[in-house]
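Q: What does the assembled structure look like for these inputs?
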Amino acid sequence: MSLSVRIIPCLDVTDGRVVKGVNFTDLVDAGDPVEMAALYNKEGADELTFLDISASVAGRETTLDVVRRTAEQVFIPLTVGGGIRTVEDVDRLLRAGADKISINTAAIARPELISEIADRFGSQVLVISIDARRARTESGFEVTTHGGRQSAGIDALTWVEKACELGVGEILLNSMDADGTRAGYDIGMIKAVRAVSKVPLIASGGAGSLEDFSAALDAGADALLAASVFHFGVHRIGDVKKYLNAHNYSVRNTQSA
Amino acid sequence: MIAILDYGSGNLRSAQRAFETSGKEVLITSDYETALNAEGLVVPGVGAFAACMQGLIKVRGDQIVRERFAAKRPTLGICVGMQIFFARGIEHGEHAGVGMWDATVEKLNAPILPHMGWNTVRPAAGSTLFAGVEDQSFYFVHSYAAKVSVGAMPTLANHGEDFIAAIEDGALTATQFHPEKSSDAGLHLIKNWAQTL
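A:
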């Protein structure tokens, strides 16, 4: 009896539609975020993450509507990230029904945003999303911006420690080196971040084989986020959970409640 | 009719939808009379103990909870909505709660906090709340909890140490986890509660 590891599919949403495509045959409309959310819930997802990649104000408004419709139909925790710059942005998303929000670039530009959000809504709603890669910094890992194309000029572990001090409730660690490779999570990076933080850690970037998932847990991750392996049906969520359960990791029992 | 007490800023719409799956009519309200007389009352809660308690007092929620208990009308507290039913909470200083149960809500001793995610529970013997979902997991998000059994039927869970995950004390029920975020198991539990109304 213990806390289960969480498997979290991530959906990129723009102008109210899921992008990056999905190839599930049992969907009527693979581009509809609400339908995708409902399917992932049925398959045993422990949480859902929407990443809003809309470029326009109208697109962001549409995302609020997507969050609203999802929260009213799918009863598992929902995290929303992308384009959040102010406490007001957070307020709007929480009011629409998001349980947690994740911030990234805005916190790098203005770290006080972390404490402003934590003070008003509590640390439990706040996920710091960190796009990191290997580099010649003090710890060997640095923070990047622009999808990993630019260095933010900050050591990744220094940033983790600062974000924790300012009051984040959870860390989403994206490896920019591993992202999209399906060659495995960056195990060294997960271990390094785990060693300096005491809040839950979500590993992201690089999931390919079933062994990759258990390796990230062994390195200290509490939750595993993946996008393409789920969207393209390389693995079903149930298969990942079955594998982890068989290898003595605690997973949520989703059999007929 | 189930009333969900609106005394803060959180989203109650998805909770409303979750409780509606029980087949009951569900209303979001901050009105004293409506909350007092509803067949069932849900007291949600997010944020810090003191802020929640302040919000509750503003709509006379503390009085509503006491009067409903005396009149044997079912009330369900969720997460911080459960925590403020206790005598006191130690979160950024000591603060008084509604005082339905004489115990203190304090920080969990665990290596990783918040306790965030799905955990199993050890249901109290004879629990009606957990009937049919005894071995299921529920979604928790909290760093504080009551750790001392208060006599009422306590259901325990463990994160670093044992804490009270749910209480069934006559008309007063509470869960530290979020049934409205706990997928099918949570909806089953909500139905169990709604059937006692």
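Chain B is about 25% helix and 35% strand.
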